[in-house]
Amino acid sequence: MGYANPRQKIHDIYRRNSDEFTDTMTAVIDLPTAQGNQKVRVFSLRGAHLIAMFARTPKAKAFRRWVLDLIDTVMQGGEYARRQWEAHHKALEDRREQASAEGRGLASWRWQKGPKETAERYWRERMQLCLPLNT
Hints:
Blueprint: H1 6-16, E1 26-33, E2 36-43, H2 45-54, H3 58-75, H4 79-101, H5 105-127
Antiparallel strand pairs: 1-2
């Protein structure tokens, strides 16, 4: 998650929010090391996701946004991701056309192109997340 001292930071996050973790999310185990057995806290995938929900780093922020986008996409049957992609794709194409029509706009386009392509690519990938969840 981008911490300089991840072991301590994750321990601090867990300690502050331990009431939200279940026994299936985390456990303390004996881990054999060169210095002998050491007690180590481990997290299940669900527990690791909860740690990321509580963390305050840029990577954790991106993770939370990704989770919300995923939930919206699944709940709306892919419609949310498709609308987002269409909006970003249209903005990218509109700006691309404008830049090619204006010679002086090309310099400006160089600065705007990367973030617009990144947003368009992000939503294109979100559209791939649509899974029929019929059980």
